[in-house]
Amino acid sequence: MTRILTLAMFAMLTGCVSGVASGGIAPGQEFSLDVGQRAVLPDASTLHYAGISNDSRCPPNVQCIRAGDADVLFDHMPAGGKAHRVVLNTERTKSADVGPWQLQLLALQPGERPRVTLVLQAP
Questions:
Q1: Structural domain span for residue 16
Q2: What are 60-93's pLDDT values in tens digits?
Q3: Residue 76 sits in a domain of what CATH number?
Q4: What angle do CA 117, 121, 123 make, to 5 degrees?
Q5: Whether the Cβ atoms of residue 85 and residue 64 lie closer than 8 Å to each other
Q6: pTM of this prediction?
Q7: Strand order in the sheet with 17-18
Q8: Rounded to whole angstroms, how far apart are CA atoms 98 and 121?
Q9: Which is the most buried residue in 12, 87, 97, 121, by most CB within 10 A?
Q10: pLDDT score of 22 more than 80
Q11: Are 98 and 76 in contact (CB under 8 A)?
């Protein structure tokens, strides 16, 4: 019974981490997250993709006068520290510092729970 419980807990934890399976996100490589997923950064901190807000982007297959934008919400948790909110925007603020790294927004898919594509850069 303990073995089954341990395996189930391991499966749940690995389902929460996205990116490179061998230990986290590699600097300079693109990675994608779905809403609710977490990624382990090279400094052992975590990045949680909380969702989007203020989404005024033009829906697919619709002709709009203005493309619109969206805020993409993340929670950055330093190893042993307190989480803080990081907000990127598809038009105005496409990058932000997360610990010693710079997080850059590359793409945000359309939809209610859009997948985000990012890259982590060394400062």
A1: 2-121
A2: 788 888 778 999 999 999 988 899 999 999 999 9
A3: 2.60.98
A4: 150
A5: no
A6: 0.77
A7: 17-18, 38-40, 46-53, 71-77, 84-89
A8: 10
A9: 87
A10: no
A11: yes
Is residue 5's pLDDT more than 80? no
Residue in the structure block whose two tokens are 């990058």: 95
Number of domains comprising the chain:
1
**Alpha carbon distance 64, 119 (integer Å):** 29
- Which residue spans within the chain are E strands per DSSP? 17-18, 30-33, 38-40, 46-53, 71-77, 84-89, 95-98, 101-108, 116-121
Which residue intervals of the chain are DSSP H helices? 2-16
| Spacing of C-alpha 19 from chain mean position | 10
Which of 115, 117, 83 lies closest to 99 in space, CA to CA?
Answer: 83
